[in-house]
Automatic annotation (TrEMBL):
Taxonomy of the source species: Bacteria, Bacillati, Cyanobacteriota, Cyanophyceae, Nostocales
Species of provenance: Mastigocoleus testarum BC008
Residues with 4-aspartylphosphate modification: D54
Response regulatory domain residues: 3-119
SMART domains: HTH_LUXR, REC
Name listed for the protein in its UniProt record: LuxR family transcriptional regulator
Entry's Gene Ontology molecular function annotations: DNA binding
Superkingdom of source: Bacteria
Domain annotation HTH luxR-type: ranges: 143-208
Length: 212
């Protein structure tokens, strides 16, 4: 059972999300918060696994809250939700460790799947946002520094990352251990000077996304 915390300053939005998601057998909504600070204060008591985080909120917005939560509670996955594709906010949230981004009008079934996915370690980018994020992270059509140093196997792994595969799925596809894939990912991040798997997914999506 995935413990879920809903964070949004609009009570109507929280009620709507709660009504939709409580029907999912794998999800348990453990609490709600109207701003980022309230969410942070409630974490020790509620102990959520995943947080659905709104962006624009009073007192503390979703970007600031994401930064604080990922630093203090790195085990918690944050999925950012908003009503519009605000590139600047999305970039900041991903930079601070959000596991993904979706629009609030995402169908409930897809949202539930996204929650389960980020809980398992996947990265979730809303439709069409991979290209936007790549541009915001200054990823051009030319290979980033360090790209030429990647081995054929590392390129193969990045292609699977672009398709949304988890480390376990990549390991199964390439007949390698999950530990080996983790080691490869560490080397890829170092070679390309990327912060984490989320940024790797964005870079990979910009090059291989059309192969899906």
């Amino acid at each position: 059972m995935i413990r879920l915390l809903l964070v949004d300053d609009e009570n109507l939005i929280r009620r709507g999300l709660k009504a939709l998601l409580k029907l999912e057998k794998d999800l348990e909504i453990v609490g709600e918060a109207e701003n980022g600070q309230t969410a942070i204060d409630s974490i020790p008591t509620l102990q959520p696994d995943v947080i659905l985080m709104d962006i624009r909120m009073p007192i503390m917005d979703g970007v600031a809250a994401t930064k604080e939560i990922t630093k203090a509670f790195p085990q918690i996955k944050i999925l950012v939700l908003t009503t519009f594709a605000d590139e600047d906010y999305v970039t900041q949230a991903l930079h601070y460790g959000a596991a993904g981004y979706l629009l609030k009008d995402t169908p409930s079934e897809e949202l539930a799947q996204a929650i389960c996915s980020v809980h398992k370690g996947y990265t979730q980018l809303g439709p069409g946002l991979g290209k936007v994020m790549a541009q915001k992270l200054s990823v051009s059509k030319s290979p980033p520094p360090g790209w030429d140093e990647l081995t054929a196997r590392e390129i193969e792994i990045l292609q699977l990352v672009a398709k949304g595969s988890s480390n376990r799925e990549i390991a199964e596809a390439l007949y390698l251990s999950e530990k080996t894939i983790k080691n490869y990912m560490t080397r890829i991040l170092n070679r390309l000077d990327l912060r984490d798997r989320t940024q790797a997914a964005i870079v990979a999506n910009s090059f291989f996304g059309n192969e899906r």
